[in-house]
């Protein structure tokens, strides 16, 4: 269900983590996928929404953004999120092409890195953006006190 | 994006796991959420789709259903999957009520257990359905060789 009823340009799935491999602790895991027709103008809006949405839990149980926590960000490309079930199979016909997807993904990561670097609270805490390699299978270990999984479509 | 463009009745997020806490190995993790208006008639269709979709990878790299693998199933209630972002906040207005959600969740789990029990390949292999407790935060450890995350809406 996209935010406005139209066909989405992207999907992002968010999970909370205490610890995830790729050496990210106490942070936000973002699985991201781009659809055909997604364009670069989308990216700043995605970054703004995902890094400012109040889904990170403080020790007091309050929910703040990952920038305010502050916490690490782990970005994992998940083209599988673009799949659509048909019978017993998944089809990925709406996914962006591989080159476009890589370009959008890379720019998305870069914009997230810039946002953290520009946020003094994050710079002082030394929190980082880690990201998986586009196109490769990425082993992942995730510990979470409740994954708190959210889906956002753009 | 629902399968037919209408407002969905449920969302299921699937991930592959090598090992997940709650003692499930080599199986399928299903995060499930029900929306307002979801009714029981939906459940057999959900079970049929989720347990037969070919998203489980064999050692040969072939994709089969979890029933054919065969593998364990870990079902985790994730009402957060029903959220919709508004500004910096998530809203859960479309989620089912707590009682309805619990009822649907419990029946969904039961139907999955029955399906595995009725499948000789699964019974012989001794694979099981494990599930989290509705309404409680559930710590989760997930190891995966690529989470292979898929979203299905019903």
Automatic annotation (TrEMBL), chains A, B:
GO terms for cellular component: cytoplasm. Its EC number is 3.1.1.96. It is found in: Cytoplasm. Its main location: cytoplasm. It holds the Pfam family Tyr_Deacylase. One of its GO terms (molecular function) is D-tyrosyl-tRNA(Tyr) deacylase activity. It is an enzyme of class 3 (hydrolase). Keywords: Cytoplasm, Hydrolase, RNA-binding, tRNA-binding. It catalyses: D-tyrosyl-tRNA(Tyr) + H2O = D-tyrosine + tRNA(Tyr); glycyl-tRNA(Ala) + H2O = tRNA(Ala) + glycine + H(+); a D-aminoacyl-tRNA + H2O = a tRNA + a D-alpha-amino acid + H(+); L-alanyl-tRNA(Thr) + H2O = tRNA(Thr) + L-alanine + H(+). PANTHER family: D-AMINOACYL-TRNA DEACYLASE 2, D-TYROSYL-TRNA TYR DEACYLASE. Homodimer. Belongs to the DTD family. This is D-aminoacyl-tRNA deacylase 2.
